[in-house]
Amino acid sequence: MSLPADYHMHTPLCRHAKGEPIEYAARALELGLPEIGFSDHSPVEHDDQDDWRMLAGELDEYVAKVQLARDAHPTLPIRLGLEVDFISGHEPWIEQMASRYDWDYFIGSVHYVSGKWDFDNPKYIAEWDNRTVNDVWAEYFERLTAAAASGLFQIIGHPDLPKKFGHRPTCDCTGLYNEFLAACKSTDTCIELNTAGLRKDCAEIYPNLDFMKLACAADIQITFGADAHTPHEVGMNLQDAVVLAAEAGYDKCCRFAGRKKIVVKI
Length: 266
Fold this sequence. Notes:
Helix content is about 30%, strand content about 15%.
């Protein structure tokens, strides 16, 4: 099975990943990946937001690290992206970042609900005991839908992230999913099949098969990412994601260059 492009990988600048982009690219070549993209956690407007992203003053260094990987591995197409947290009110900051470099894509993600609670952070997992799971999922999808509707992103990352620690809703979320997918359709935004969920408590790709079937029915395009935080995670379980995509009805995916979409066969 040929593998798709892996568009979700990090660097040490986010303070919870190991290995330089040159090493990630070398691993991609070993695996025969056709293309990769770096999408480390972007700065937010205030550097004290958390401790798991690069700082605003490190963007130049990040871009330089990716360029070093390109120079070292000229046969491998390497795209420059960011994983950008969508936080209401920070849209001008995102637009300003978008104007600073020749980005290939932005992955929009939601990691925060209820103000500054990063619900997928293991340090704060106990906070789930103080929450109603269905309410967290509802607020998450409200924010994710706003991210998709903003038109700021080419891709929405790991679209059912709240299941990471095994917190799954007991209510029917079809309406939430469809509202989110309609927002993606309105802005021509892709969603990502992210295999990191297979390495988490949920033991499932983000998003799940039922979600993906709804996405395919809504004609939402897709990308793939292993969410690598070490070189050995590059491309991990992408073959499983390809199988999931096929089960959901997909035979094409997207790549990006200069924030322009390129549709290719899976």
